[in-house]
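Module 6 notes. Inverse folding takes a fixed backbone as the condition and produces residue identities as the prediction. Think of it as a translation problem where the source language is geometry and the target language is the twenty amino acids. Below is one complete input and output pair. Work through it position by position during the lab.
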């Protein structure tokens, strides 16, 4: 019996890559359209578009999973693996509820995205955020945007270089560095979901549709520094510490689980020389 001992991340194929590109494009439009509304608009913060975005996001997530499974030859065990990891991540999120930056689910998303690849990583991040919202009661217009941001967070880990060759301390350091930077990126992207609806007259850091791009960038930077820097920094530090301390053992466990879940080429049996195979 010949088996490959090294578990490889699930690579993107044409269909799964197209599905990911489509869902990411929808996400960019969802985050960006408020900047294109007229200054006299009275729209509230994503109260109108969030239900439609959520419904479309669920359909696109199913499309990503279906495309990844069909291209990689995976079976029901792959979906079960996603469910277990999503449930684990959802259970980790309430640990830091109300405490700035103590969010251990982020380091799990980094390691899982690394092992499962960008397609399954995106689905895992989105489903984990959805499950944790149900668990903590955090359902609202912000939920689909959290799902998109977390999906991108985990997908990025699956896109890091050397998934089949880089191992050991170098890989852990790379994942820790990615987790540190991506933790700030997550907070910055989520700030974009609400910042365009702030009135420039009510706050000196709100979005001003009449101002130049450079001026609004300065306002947005000030907004991030004033509202989320402490939380993002705490999230980044916790992600780095957990990745450096628990990362090696968890990576081995995840890769062992993916082998058992048949994320690789099926096991083949060699017929002994001189023995006629059954017909």
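Target side of the pair, the amino acids:
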């Amino acid at each position: 019996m010949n088996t490959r001992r090294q578990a490889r991340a699930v690579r993107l194929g044409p269909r799964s890559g197209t599905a990911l590109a489509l869902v990411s494009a929808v996400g960019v439009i969802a985050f960006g359209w408020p900047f294109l509304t007229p200054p006299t608009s009275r729209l509230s913060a994503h109260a109108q578009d969030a239900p439609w975005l959520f419904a479309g996001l669920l359909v696109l997530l199913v499309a990503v999973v279906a495309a990844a499974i069909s291209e990689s030859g995976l079976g029901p065990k792959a979906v079960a693996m996603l469910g277990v990891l999503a449930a684990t991540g959802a259970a980790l999120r309430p640990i830091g509820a109300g405490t700035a930056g103590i969010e251990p689910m982020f380091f799990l998303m980094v390691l899982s995205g690394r092992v499962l690849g960008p397609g399954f990583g995106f689905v895992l991040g989105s489903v984990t955020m959805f499950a944790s919202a149900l668990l903590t009661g955090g359902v609202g217009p912000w939920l689909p945007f959290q799902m998109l941001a977390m999906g991108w967070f985990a997908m990025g880990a699956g896109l890091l270089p050397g998934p089949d060759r880089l191992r050991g301390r170098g890989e852990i350091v790379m994942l820790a560095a990615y987790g540190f930077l991506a933790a700030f990126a997550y907070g910055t992207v989520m700030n974009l979901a609400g910042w365009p609806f702030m009135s420039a007259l009510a706050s000196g850091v709100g979005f001003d549709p009449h101002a130049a791009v450079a001026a609004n960038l300065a306002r947005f930077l000030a907004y991030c520094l004033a509202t989320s820097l402490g939380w993002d920094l705490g999230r980044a530090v916790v992600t780095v510490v957990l990745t450096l301390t628990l990362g090696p053992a968890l990576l081995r466990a995840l890769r062992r689980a993916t082998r058992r879940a048949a994320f690789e080429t099926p096991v083949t049996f060699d017929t002994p020389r001189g023995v006629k195979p059954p017909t």
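Reference fact for the lab report: The longest helix spans residues 229-260.
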